[in-house]
Amino acid sequence: MADRILIQLDGSTPKFRVSRAGKSVHSTVMDDFVIREDMETLRPFRTGSITLPSTAAVTIETFSPALDYPPMVLLRCDSFHLPGVALEASINPGKTTLQLQGPAGAVVTWYVYLEKIDPLNEK
User: Fold this and answer.
1) Cβ-proximal residues to 86 (8 Å cutoff; 6+ apart), any chain
2) Helix, strand, or coil here: 1?
3) Mapping DSSP to helix (H, G, I), strand (E, B) and coil, where does residue 120 land?
4) pLDDT tens across 93-118, in order?
5) Within a 10 A sphere around the Cβ of 39, how many other Cβ atoms?
6) What is the pLDDT of residues 57-92, one digit of tens each?
7) Is there a cis peptide before residue 53, judged by omega within 30 degrees of 0?
8) CA 69, CA 67: separation in Å to the nearest integer?
9) I need a labelling partner for 111 at 20 to 30 A (CA). Which of 2, 50, 59, 123 fits?
10) How far is CA 48 from the centre of its chain?
11) What are the residues facing 13 on neighbouring strands?
12) Which domains does the chain carry?
């Protein structure tokens, strides 16, 4: 399993990195990271809660205009706390629709964070 979190003081430069699943935090490829110390601060953008009606993907948010890049999405399941119960958020290639998939009946709270918020996408 790859190391995924790095918190380190390198000389006078602090490093804080979280790598993508399956990628090492010691990678030199910047696209392998979800969070890096040189990124702008993530800002809360949207949040909501839903009870999933089935195991099929459900659209939970639509962005207009489209986002410039995929957002950071955090999920919290309020009703299932079992090992192996998977929740998954995905955004379509056009970056206009956020979908959520998980077990039927799961109560899920979701949070969307962006580095830069386009005033046209504010609600």
Assistant:
1) 102
2) coil
3) helix
4) 888 999 999 888 889 999 998 876 66
5) 14
6) 899 888 888 888 788 888 888 776 666 668 889 988
7) no
8) 5
9) 2
10) 14
11) 10
12) 5-35 (no CATH), 43-121 (2.60.40)
Beta strands in the chain (DSSP E): 5-10, 13-19, 33-35, 43-51, 58-62, 72-77, 88-91, 97-101, 107-114
Phi/psi region, residue 83 (left: phi>0; alpha: psi -120 to 50; beta: rest), is: beta
Q: Is the pTM of this model over 0.70?
A: no
Q: Which residue has the tokens 């639509």?
A: 62
SS3 52: coil
Please give the Cα distance from 114 to 91 (Å, whole number). Answer: 13
Two tokens at 95? 């970056």
What would the 3-class secondary structure string for 57-89 be? CEEEEECCCCCCCCCEEEEEECCCCCCCCCCEE
Residue 73 · residue 63 · CB < 8 Å: no
